[in-house]
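Section 5.1 Outputs to date
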Amino acid sequence: MSEISTKPYLLRALYEWCTDSGFTPYIVVIVDSSTKVPMEFVKNGEIVLNISFSATAQLKMDNNFVQFRARFGGVSREIEVPIENITAIYARENGQGMTFDTNLAERLTSKKKNLGDDADASNQKAETVFTLAAVPKGDAQQSGDKANDDDQPDPPKPSGKPTLTRIK
């Protein structure tokens, strides 16, 4: 008997936690030929989708797919995402959530290699890491070169809220 994946159960649990807490659940999806999403919103082979109750219609999260209808630019679209393509689910308001190991990044890298992209870039293992970071208030710039501060734009004001930062 094959082992059942825990991923769809964790996705549903975190979705429920987000909605019960009044947060907006977002999923990060690797887009390939098996995903049905509006391609004009895909960036770097990924799309981030709001799956909140107010943003979706007919949301169905089973063990193989997340399916729903959503509006993009005022046009209703049918969305279908395989569970294996979801790399993270998190709450927009505080960045809390979970990332999932996926070998899809490696598969996308091999697809690029087969298409003749730069050999050095395609031979590197693609890895996505998500971290939560809160910028402390009053954190000063630690550059010893104060004369060049006028050449650089001011850093963004820290809000004190954690943010989701993706490191590749």
